Amino acid sequence: MNIREAKVSDADKIAPLFELILSPHINHWIGDVEKKQRLEFINHFVREDNNAFSYKYCHVYGDDSSVAGVISHYPGYKDDQLFEPIFDFLKKHYPNLNYDSVEDDVDPDDYYINLISVSSKFRGEGIGNQLIGYAENRAKARGYKTVSLNVEFDNSRAQKLYERLGYHFQRTNTSDGLKYRYLVKEQFQ
Fold it and tell me: Which residues are in the N-acetyltransferase domain (predicted)?
């Protein structure tokens, strides 16, 4: 297995990994729905070209037929524009939705890690570290001096991993009623 660009055909494998992270957000936006509906929602956007969950902004750890982990990453200045199609879809299909407007929770000069998830079968094997390293290398190659991400306040395990990798707390962000720590790594100076 290795890291490769995600493909549209990976959507069915990426969606369950993203669902682990996005479940509270989707339930906040459209109400408490079954896992099947959340997976359909995520799968729809993974297959599309230009949004924050799109395969075009993902790299996977796996082979041609399997995905053990996934990372979504992009320049920070794109964050608001990549969430617009998602919120436009929500407004159109869920007129009574409950969502926070697109927030300025990402510094535009950062390279942003939007989502990272590793299958429970493969946790503890260093896949998350490899995916983060891959995103950091892409950031460096593109001239970014900082990489950032948001981690839920109650996810101390992930926060410890990020701190071991050199990320430090910059501020608190709130999204859909959840509190996040905005962590930044300034490694490229």
Answer: 1-185
